[in-house]
Amino acid sequence: MKFTTKCVHGSNKRYDNTGAISTPIFQTATFAHPRVGESTGFDYSRLQNPTREHLECIITNLEEGTDAIAFSSGMAATATLMELFSPGDHIIASDDLYGGSIRLFQHISNKNGITVTLLDTGDIDAIKQTITKNTKAIFVETPTNPMMQVTDIAAVSEIARLHDILLIVDNTFLTPLFQRPLKLGADIVMHSGTKYLGGHNDTLAGFLVVKCPDIAERLRFISKTTGACLAPFDSWLIIRGIKTLAVRMRQQEKSAIIIAKWLQSQSEIKAVHYCGLTEHPGYAVSKKQSTGFGAMISFELETEAIAKRILEKIKLIGFAESLGGVESLMTYPYLQTHADVPEEQRKAKGINERLLRLSVGLEDTEDLIADIANALADF
After folding, report:
1. Is 119 helix (H, G, I), strand (E, B) or coil?
2. What is the CATH number of domain 245-376?
3. Stated pTM of the model
4. Residue 332 annotated to the active site
C-alpha cells in the first residue's frame, strides 16, 4: 500500500459494526469487563483506548516501525523517553534542538543525574570523540530547529551500533512522508504530532515510534505509569489530520522552495536557511536520506529593527509559535521557542535578534510573498 493510501485508510482495525467511515471517538475513561478474568481488550483509557490505538497503528505503519505510543504533547513524549535512562547515563544531542528539548535536558534530566552533551551531530568526528563508557544514546533532530542543520542518520547509526547505544531521531519537520529514520538505522523516532501530523493548529500530540519490541514494552510501561496519554478526541483530530498529510506537505514544500528563493533576492535579508536550496550545506545529505525538504525556512535580516518590523506588519502570516499547520506562521526564536536557552548558546548557533522562522502553510504562494514584501516595504 502506498504512503498516501496509508494516510487516508490508516489501520485495518475496526471497533464497531456500524460501517462508520470516520473512526469513532471512544470518549470513555474506563471499560466494563464481561466477567471475572475476561476483558474486551480495554481496561482503562490511560492504558489504552480504541481511538488512540487506531492512531498508533497508523503512525506505526507510516514510520514502518514495530509500535508507536501517543502522548499528550511532543514534550510529554520526550520526557517519557528520558525515563529510559538512569542517573550517571550520558546522552549526546544535537545542539540546535527545539528549545523545549534543551530546557528538559538542562533543567530536568540533569537534575535526575543524566548528563547531556550538546554538539553539532552533523560532525561525525565530534560524536566519536564525545562518546564515553556511560553514553547510552544519541538524540538527533534533522533538520534542526531553527537553523535547519542536517545530520546524516545512517552515518550516526553506524557509530551507535558500534558502541551499542540508542539512536533517537526527532522527525517532526519532515514526517514519514519525507524521511523514515527507522529505515536509516534509528531505534526510536520522536514526533511532535501537534505540527505536520495534525496539520491544523488545533490540538497537541506527541509520538514515540520504535523498532525493537523490548524498547516498546519498556516505554509502554513508563507511559501507563506516568500517564501522559493522548485523549480520545485529540487522537481523532490527529487521525483526521493525517488523512491529508501527503497532499498538504507536498504543496507546502512547493511553496517553500519558491519563497526561499525569493527571500534570497531581498537586499534586507542576510541569509536564508532552507534545506531545499542547492547551496545549503546539508543539501547533499538531505537528497540522500530524504524524499523531500519540508516547508520550514529560517532567515536572518540585516538588522534587529527590520526583523521586528516584519513581525509587526505581516497580516496574512500569523506571528505565533508552532509550525506545520495549514496557516503560515512566523516565529521569533530568540524570544519565543528558544528564549530559555542561555543567550551565549543561542547566539553561538546564530539564533540572534535578527533571525525569523517561517512555517509555510497552504495559502497561495504569491499572497505569502506579497505579505512579506509589504512588511519589508519601508526599508
Report:
1. strand
2. 3.90.1150.10
3. 0.97
4. no
Pick the CATH number of 3-242 from 3.40.640.10, 3.50.50.60, 2.30.110.10, 1.20.1640.10: 3.40.640.10
pLDDT the model gives residue 169: 98
Sequence-distant contacts of 234-237: CB under 8 A, at least 24 apart: 234/72, 234/203, 234/204, 234/205, 235/25, 235/49, 235/51, 235/52, 235/54, 235/55, 235/70, 235/205, 236/22, 236/23, 236/25, 236/51, 236/55, 237/198, 237/200, 237/202, 237/203, 237/205
Q: Which carries the bigger pLDDT value, residue 15 or residue 132?
A: 132
**How many whole angstroms separate alpha carbon 63 and alpha carbon 56?**
11
For residue 343, pLDDT beyond 90: no
195 is catalytic: yes
Which residue among the candidates 95, 96, 152, 170 is catalytic per the annotation? 170
Q: Which of 52, 136, 180, 195 is catalytic?
A: 195
- Please confirm, yes or no, whether 98 is among the known catalytic residues: yes
Question: How do residues 35-73 score in pLDDT, each as one tens digit?
Answer: 999 999 999 999 999 999 999 999 999 999 999 999 999
3-state secondary structure of 77: helix
Query: 113: helix, coil or strand?
Result: coil
Q: Which of 95, 96, 98, 371 is catalytic?
A: 98
Would you place residue 379 in the very low, low, confident or very high pLDDT band (cuts 50, 70, 90)?
Answer: low
170 is catalytic: yes
Can you tell me the mean pLDDT for 110-138?
98
